[in-house]
Each structure stands twice: as structure tokens, then as C-alpha cells.
Automatic annotation (TrEMBL):
Database matches in Pfam families: Pyridox_oxase_2
SUPFAM superfamilies: FMN-binding split barrel
Protein name: Pyridoxamine 5'-phosphate oxidase Alr4036 family FMN-binding domain-containing protein
GO MF annotation list: FMN binding
Organism expressing this protein natively: Pichia membranifaciens NRRL Y-2026
Signal peptide interval: none
Taxonomy of the source species: Eukaryota, Fungi, Dikarya, Ascomycota, Saccharomycotina
Length: 299
């Protein structure tokens, strides 16, 4: 099957749209946490820029950063993240955990999507143990979410990411064909699937799409002096010139510093605060074969 909405996605998207339609802000603000180079937690408020390739079915959330920022450098060393959204109108909180990949002038994600049937064969043992007991499975899921990391071992930004993510051009051509979606997994071989993942050109087009969607003032921020550098008189003058749009001698457009951060989610914790005193909580986990499992747990 082609990529489809994760179990958490409809609830999250609906909450986000409700907040944008009825709230005072035109943006979705969230808290993004990662670990810095000194192994300290680092949290920032960020602006969500939607879904990767402007497609909800990718289930990949994106936001932006400056290539010169400490956040970018920290994520190069450790791409694991935790992100928290709170929607006031519906009183819902979503926590996302997974790993990021970034799109910059010299870095693009490497997707290693495998044949779903092959993944199913490799994960039979795990599937059997997962379904042995609903209580045991729920407890295992809670333990995974509360643990320091969902993935054991190394986690490098350049490692291939096993995720069901197809090339936008492939999806379009496939949808225009007469082949049944349900036959896709059976027809694709592992060798064939490599060409179905996003190309370098499509990654760059996505970076440009997000860039063009930014406001003019936001794009200006990427031309400013090195983030965190001393506010010298020279930097003060440059900031003033950029803000007034009179930095004609500055050859930088800012695009060279522009980075799109893609959040590939593995675990989701949704909490719904009930007005009648009955709160609810759901945990979602992405499995090896890129399906999602949902469990309702005590809030």
C-alpha cells in the first residue's frame, strides 16, 4: 500500500485546524526538545510549517532553522527529538518522539523503504510477541515512550531511515495509472523500491517550497549575522540595514543558511482533557512494517 494517514494524524490535524480557525495566531507553535553537545536537554518554541511535501499522508511534520544555529549542529550529532503541542480550544496535548532528518544545501534525507512483505517476514517473531497480551503490549508501549530513547544503538543523521515515504512524482504517476493501490506492495521488489523514494531534486524542491511559503520578514532573518554572535557596532548596522531592506551590498539571500527539519515520528502520546472530569490518553507506536498501533491507557 502507498503511504496513508497514521492513526494519530486525523485527531492531530483536526485539533490544529480548529486552533488556527478559532485562535488568535495564524501559526501553530510547539515546543521542540533535543539533546545538545554537552548532553543537556535543549527546548525551544518553534513554528510548524505543515507536513512534508505538503501532504498529510507522509505523517512527517516539518519546521525550519538556520544552518548556523546551535540547534542544527546539535541535531547533526544526535537527531533524536521530542516535540509537544497543546491545543487550547480542544484541550488536547500531543507529544511526538522520533528522529529528524534535514534538508539543506549539502544534506538530504536517505530513505530506505523496503518491500512491505519482506518487512512482515522479518518481523513475524516480534508480531507474535506483540499480540500475546493486550495488557503486556500496552505496558511495553508505555515503557518505550517513557524510556530515554525509542531506538537502541547508534543514531546518525546520515543513516538510511526505514520509513514508508514515496517520491511525490511516483505517487502522482501511480495514481494516474490503472494499477490497484492494493497491488503495489506485491509488485515492487526491493531493487525497484529504491527509485520510488524521493529524489535529490524533489528534496530541493521541497526546501524551496517551504522557503517561498515564509513571509518576507522571516526570510530576512536568515541574512542576519551569526546567531548568538556579539552585538558589535558592525553587526548592529547590518541588522538595521537588513530590517530596512537597504543592505544592497550584501550578496547573501539567506537561502544558503535555510534548513528544513523533518520530524519522522515513531511514538505519539495524546492526552485529551475532559470537561466532565474524565480525561483520556492514547499511545501510538509505529511498527517495523510501518503500520501504527494504538492503545488507550490511564491518563
Amino acid at each position: 500500500m502507498l503511504q496513508s494517514l497514521a492513526l494519530w494524524n486525523p485527531s492531530f490535524t483536526a485539533a490544529m485546524q480548529t486552533e488556527l480557525e478559532t485562535g488568535d495566531s495564524p501559526f501553530t507553535i510547539f515546543n521542540f526538545s533535543n539533546v545538545d553537545s554537552n548532553n543537556y536537554p535543549s527546548t525551544r518554541s518553534c513554528v510548524l510549517r505543515g507536513f512534508l511535501f505538503d501532504q498529510e499522508k507522509t505523517n512527517v511534520l516539518v519546521f525550519t532553522t538556520d544552518k548556523r544555529s546551535s540547534k542544527y549542529k546539535d541535531l547533526l550529532l544526535n537527531p533524536r527529538f521530542d516535540a509537544c503541542f497543546y491545543f487550547h480550544k480542544l484541550k488536547k496535548q500531543f507529544r511526538f518522539r522520533g528522529t529528524v532528518r534535514m534538508i539543506s544545501d549539502d544534506l538530504t534525507p536517505v530513505i530506505a523503504y523496503e518491500n512491505p512483505s519482506a518487512i512482515n517476514e522479518q518481523s513475524n517473531d516480534r508480531a507474535d510477541s506483540d499480540t500475546s497480551s493486550v495488557d503486556d503490549e500496552s505496558q511495553s508501549l508505555i515503557s518505550q515512550y517513557l524510556s530515554l530513547s525509542n531506538n537502541e544503538g547508534s543514531c546518525q543523521i546520515t543513516e538510511p531511515l526505514h520509513y514508508k515515504l514515496f517520491s511525490p512524482s511516483f505517487i502522482k504517476s501511480f495514481e494516474d495509472s490503472s494499477v490497484s493501490l492494493s497491488d503495489l506492495g506485491h509488485r515492487m521488489t526491493k531493487t525497484e523500491s529504491v527509485s520510488k523514494t524521493p529524489t535529490a531534486e524533489e528534496w530541493e524542491n521541497e526546501r524551496l517550497r517551504v522557503w517561498n511559503a515564509l513571509s518576507r520578514n522571516m526570510r530576512k532573518s536568515y541574512k542576519k549575522p551569526l546567531p548568538g554572535s556579539p552585538l558589535t557596532e558592525e553587526n548592529r548596522k547590518l541588522l538595521d540595514a537588513i530590517n530596512r531592506g537597504v543592505d544592497g551590498n550584501n550578496s547573501s539571500t539567506g537561502y544558503e543558511n535555510f534548513v528544513v527539519i523533518c520530524m519522522f515520528v515513531d511514538l505519539v502520546d495524546e492526552v485529551v482533557l475532559g470537561g466532565s472530569g474524565y480525561d483520556r490518553r492514547y499511545l501510538y507506536r509505529r511498527t517495523h512494517n510501518d503500520t501504527w498501533k494504538e492503545h488507550e491507557v490511564c491518563p
